[in-house]
Amino acid sequence: MSPSHIEHIGIAVKDLKSAVRLYENLLGRECYKIEEVPGQKVRTAFFRIGEVKIELLESTDPEGPIGKFIEKRGEGVHHIAFAVNDIGKQLEIARDNNIGLINEIPQEGADGLDIAFIHPKSTSGVLIELCEDKRSGPE
Ligand code: ZN
Question: Which of 8, 12, 43, 137 has the smallest number of CB atoms closer than 10 Å to its CB?
Answer without folding.
Answer: 137
